[in-house]
Amino acid sequence: MRRALVLTVAAGAAWAARRALGRRIGNSPLWPLPALETPVSGHSPRRALRALVVSRTEPAEGVLHLVLESPELPAWAPGAHVDVTLPSGLVRQYSLCGDPAESGRYTIAVRLVEDGRGGSREAHARLVEGAELELRPPRNRFELVPAGAYVFVAGGIGITPILPMLRAATAAGADWTLLYGGRSRASMPFLADLAAYGDRVSLFPQDEAGLPDLAPLAAAGPGTLIYCCGPEPLMDAVVAAATDPAAVRLERFGAAAATGPARPFTVELRRSGRTVEVGADESALAAVRRELPGTPYSCEQGFCGTCQHRVLAGTVEHRDTLLTDQERDDSMLLCVSRARGDRLVLDL
């Protein structure tokens, strides 16, 4: 009897220890290193979040506006986006466009792209009130840097990350203006919200006013930061129009451009002790996942950063739209970038 009791107690203790260890690793993917308040290299896929769709509206033609709620949603700052796992398993990135002060609530907007890859069509068809979604914690590579003055430029659904920036800039007492373009007024979401800002906001419905007038960029004074999110031609025009291109901050949510024909190469996975061959017609991510199927990824287009990994040797042909020059010195995005030579060595 006593032996049975001892075994039961020991088994219970072991079970409790395993649960505690699991929670510890979940809170800090790099355990036993301490958890960081703000992780610097994304979050572990273990840290999935669950949220409920509590509101669904359409603020403009072809735009779905969703409010998600859950007590486990982390805090966020203007410029952040979340990875949303759709019911089919597709993962898409959406900027948070609500109020960071609203604890436990995220707001996103989805533009319907009929000829896209299917994510927006699924979101519009299946994300109804009462639906439960899986999210990954917010990441922010479009952070609003404190400044005395800003010029914000948005094109279409690119207004989403800009909205919370306007609230933050107003609260901070900064001087700012917004140039907002779209195909038509009917297609431009959140016009009612923007009306409260008066003449700080300049609207450019293309069917009425043509393309946005970017003259304010050249007239921006020293220390003015320029934030832009929208189609690639708009962002290219903003960079060209700015007096100081270093003052421009861009949020890209589009496919990376290839810089030349692809050719096969070899990838050594140093920590795993394996070598994989990457074909000319596949990505390094696809080849690596054949050997390491748990390798995380998301957008597969070079702008979310989920598949960023450290490069130990070899020269990378970077085809992403995300990494800084400093990050490109020792890392790459597996989904789009390739070897410039015949071989790369990764810390995997």
User: What's the arrangement of strands in the largest beta sheet?
Assistant: 4-3-6-1-2-5
| Strand residues, percent | 25-35%
Q: Helices and strands: which structural class?
A: alpha/beta
C-alpha geometry = globular
- Specify Rg, calculated over alpha carbons: 23 Å
- In DSSP terms (H or I, runs of 4 or more residues), the helix count works out at 9
The tally of beta strands, per DSSP, is 18
- Which sequence of SSEs, written as H and E, runs from N to C? HEEEEEHEEHEHEHHEHEEEHEEHEEE
The overall pLDDT, averaged over residues, is: 85
Q: Share of helix among residues?
A: 10-25%
Distance between the termini: 50 Å
Which segments are poorly predicted (pLDDT under 50) over 5 or more consecutive residues?
20-46
The major pleated sheet works out as: 6 strands, antiparallel
From the structure above, extract its key features.
9 helices, 6-stranded antiparallel β-sheet, 29% strand, 348 residues, 5-stranded parallel β-sheet, alpha/beta
Short description:
This protein has helices spanning 2-27, 119-126, 159-171, 191-195, 206-209, 215-218, 232-241, 284-291, 325-328; strands at 49-60, 63-69, 81-85, 91-95, 105-111, 132-139, 149-155, 175-182, 201-205, 225-229, 248-251, 265-269, 274-278, 308-313, 316-317, 331-333, 338-339, 343-346.
Would you give an account of this structure?
The chain is of the alpha/beta class and 348 residues long. Helix content is 24%, strand content 29%. The strands form 4 sheets. The protein has a 6-stranded antiparallel sheet, with helices on one face. The chain has a 5-stranded parallel sheet with strand order 9-8-7-10-11, with helices on both faces. A 5-stranded mixed sheet has the order 13-12-18-14-16, covered by helices on one side. A hairpin with a 2-residue loop joins strand 1 and strand 2.
